[in-house]
């Protein structure tokens, strides 16, 4: 695991996390990055499809954030469209504003990318921040993601970024 603190870990989200996730969903910084999504937590925390991992990031046992990793080729809603094999897509956020700007997001993303690239057939990982979320763009670029294209999902204009296995393996 690259530069990740041994005190930060990812664990599967469970129905016991429902109230926490709903609370985080209402935080202004989370709404700013994802204003229109309804994650349907009550239903989705009960499901464990083979194409998805929903994870809680914990710092020394304290929940601080959420990570979702999907195989966009197999995902139910076909959000990403027709996608070749070997891709993953990540959603990530810090729950409380007091935990922003402390390096936790970078550690969470590295743990998520390590998890994605542990699968030998995965060759790239995508993220889709809102076009207006320039803070997220800078975050992804610092980690090594490269801008691919602008794309409209539902009613939201997004910027698609990807990181390839070769790029990630060369990041110190």
UniProtKB/TrEMBL annotation:
Gene Ontology molecular function: N-acyltransferase activity
PROSITE patterns associated with the record: GNAT
The keyword Disulfide bond belongs to this UniProt entry's keyword annotation: no
Keywords, sorted A to Z: Antibiotic resistance
Domain N-acetyltransferase: 8-167
Claim: tRNA processing is one of the keywords in the record: no
Biological process terms in GO annotation: response to antibiotic
Family annotation (InterPro entries): Acyl_CoA_acyltransferase, GNAT_dom
Protein name: N-acetyltransferase domain-containing protein
């Amino acid at each position: 695991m690259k530069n990740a603190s041994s005190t930060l870990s990812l664990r599967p989200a469970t129905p016991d996390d429902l109230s926490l996730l709903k609370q985080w969903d209402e935080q202004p910084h989370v709404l700013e990055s994802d204003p229109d999504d309804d994650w349907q937590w009550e239903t989705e925390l009960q499901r464990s499809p083979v194409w998805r991992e929903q994870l809680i990031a914990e710092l020394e046992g304290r929940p601080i954030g959420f990570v979702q990793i999907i195989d966009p080729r197999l995902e139910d809603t076909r959000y990403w469209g027709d996608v070749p094999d070997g891709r993953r897509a990540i959603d990530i956020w810090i729950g409380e504003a007091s935990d922003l700007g402390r390096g936790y997001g970078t550690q969470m993303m590295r743990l998520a990318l390590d998890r994605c690239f542990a699968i030998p057939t995965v060759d790239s990982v995508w993220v889709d921040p809102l076009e207006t979320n320039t803070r997220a763009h800078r975050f992804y670029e610092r980690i090594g993601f490269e801008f691919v294209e602008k794309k409209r999902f539902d009613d939201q204009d997004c910027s698609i970024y990807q990181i390839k296995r070769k790029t990630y393996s060369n990041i110190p």
